[in-house]
Amino acid sequence: MAYSEKVMDHFANPRNVGEMKDPSGVGEVGNSRCGDIMRMYIKVEGDTITDVKFKTFGCGAAIATSSMATELIKGKTIEDALKLTNQAVMEALDGLPPVKVHCSVLAEQAIKAAVADYYKRQGIDPTPLVGELAECEECACGLHE
Amino acid sequence: MARFVYADNAATTPVSPTVFAAMKPFYTDLYGNPSSLYSVGREAKKHLELARADVAACLNAEPNEIFFTSGGSEADNWAIKGIAHQLAKKGKKHIITSKFEHHAVLHTCASLEKEGFSVTYLDVHADGLVRPEELEAAIREDTALVTVMYANNEIGTIQPVSEIGAICQKHGVLFHTDAVQAAGTLPVDVKEQHIDLLSLSAHKFHGPKGVGALFIRKGISLPNLVDGGAQERGRRAGTENVAGIVGLSVALKEACATMAERAKRLTAMRDRLIDGALQIERTRLNGDRTKRLPGNVNLCFEGIEGESLLLLLDLNGVCGSSGSACTSGSLDPSHVLLAIGLPHEIAHGSLRLSFSDQNTEEDVDYILEVLPGIVERLRSMSPLWEEIVNGQKAD
């Protein structure tokens, strides 16, 4: 198993890592039992995501996909951010080894979870806008096998 | 200043220069097939038998009790499947092993279970040690074989092999030990320790990859795993890997000759690394502190994941390994760490560093210089670490 140079770059020099004071929304996916937790913070002004931060517990691919996902949605509208697929995250990283595909899914889910939280804080039901967020007792990875 | 530190000697070791030099002629000049009648064949055969005698001497075995294989996994498969099938004919279809054996043993046992054999998997407790009394209690009328490793490959814990051997002898049960991590590092005396079958692998003690050996006590018969020509006295077919076998014997002799001195040096390095690493908060040592291989350090750092730790160590020139799910290629972390009772989230944050003769005190210094910063960096971006720290404050 080898990571692309882009994965290694985002792993070794993660973009937008850290916490955020007064975020507009926070989403957390994954669980410690499986070895992956991603937490995303977004700042929304108007309908634009003006800032993104993340914290991730996980493997190299988990950190790299979190980093890439934040870059891909920063400055975008919420509508565009919700269109971001795990496939797009993977492509932006020049691919992931097959066993690591679930990390890109987590990154996509983390964004959706943060946006859903933002809607909730606005008093809007997120489900029709964000869709059903994957909830998995055992392991987020198991969903996508 | 970055440095290259190879600290994954439990995975494999470099071939030593003397071993390499001893092997070379068998590729170019003494290339004959040992089964051939002419001089280059006879010469190869002579060295094959000298190698066999040397390996036997290191284990206090007889030369005709040593059978060369393609490595440790083949030796384990042959020993366990062979004895199981042999003794099944007498109605003995029970095997005792431990929960944290190498997969070469565990998966072999699982395959026998599918054939209808029954297997008892002994607990290894938090210290990573099998309890001889529990092993004795598990022996049944129909027990054919006990197979317990000499030393664990991940956490390095040394099992009470002599006691297990004595128990097996008392109950008339055969005893196999996977000594892949122990051979060349710990003293082995198959007679004194009542070992009936023992597996070893050359590349763990500065020999070449792809060659190993199975010791089979004289008088024990078991079916062949590899059928074909009459090599290895008709018990293991295939043209002998003469260069590899010579390499194995030279490496083992060298390892055994320097064993005591090396153990002392590596133990001191190991302990210094353990003490230094345990200065990092919420870090634990896996496996018994003293009953462990001289060069083995296995740690868990709470709140971080092993693969990212390995990648950052690698970026700093340090080669280690981890039992995290991400490095095991499955969703679960190492079966060894789970067997000693670690919760999944802690087992994901494991790091094994293993030394050989080629490591130095400067390597320990360097690891201790880079490790705390790497752990700190990963923790600073870990939501799990944040939870742990907040939980601690709440306590």
UniProtKB/TrEMBL annotation, chain A:
Gene3D superfamilies reported for this sequence: 3.90.1010.10
Top-level taxon of the source organism: Bacteria
Domain NIF system FeS cluster assembly NifU N-terminal: 2-122
Regions that span the bilayer: none
Entry coiled-coil feature ranges: none
Pfam annotation, one family: NifU_N
Signal sequence residues: none
InterPro entries: NIF_FeS_clus_asmbl_NifU-like, NIF_FeS_clus_asmbl_NifU_N
Protein name (Swiss-Prot/TrEMBL): Fe-S cluster assembly scaffold protein NifU
